[in-house]
Amino acid sequence: MDLILIEKLMRLLENSALEELDVTQDGVRIRLAKSVRGAGPVGERAETPEMSAEAQIAEVLALPHENAGREHKVVAGLIGTFYRASAPDAAAFVEEGDRIEDGQTLGLLEAMKTFNPVEADCAGRITAILVADGASVEAGTPLFLIEKEA
Predict the structure, then answer these.
(1) Tell me: the pLDDT tens digits for 39-58?
(2) Rounded mean pLDDT of 81-104?
C-alpha cells in the first residue's frame, strides 16, 4: 500500500460515521480507528453529504495499484443487514487472508427475516472485508475484496 492510499483512507474514516476501518492489500494490513478521547456528543461527526461511507471506500479501493487486474469486489445483492457468521457465537465464514472457492459462502444478508447467503463468484484469497458485522447495507455495497487466482 502506498502512502497516498493510506492518507485517503484516513480522511475517509475521519469524515464518515464509521468507527474503524480494516483493509488488507498485498499482504499489508491497515487498521484505522477513531479515538474516543475528546469525542463530542454522539451525532457530531460529519458525514460527507455527496457519498455514503461505503461508496467512499469503494472509490478509494478502486484506485490503480499492483493487483488491479486480479482484484474482484463482492457486492451486496440486496438491501439488508450483513452478518459475517451464522450465529452471534459462531465463527465467521471467512477471515482476511483466507483462500476461498467459487460459490463458497462468505457471509449472510438478512432481509425481511430471511437470511440470504453472500457467495464468492470466483476463487482466490480474501484481501479485505469492507463491512462490519451487523452493518446495514444497500444493494451494490462492496462487502469483500478478493484477489483472484491467476
Answers:
(1) 444 444 444 445 565 566 65
(2) 94
pLDDT in tens, 72-82: 899 998 999 99
Helix (H, G, I), strand (E, B) or coil at 3: helix
CA distances from 66 to 1, 14, 39, 79, 125 (A): 9, 26, 37, 32, 15
What's the Cα-to-Cα distance from 20 to each of 3, 69, 80, 85, 148, rounded to whole Å? 18, 27, 21, 19, 26
Distance between CA atoms of residues 75 and 13, nearest Å: 20
0.70 surpassed by pTM: no
DSSP for 106-122, please give it.
EEEEEETTEEEEEE-SS
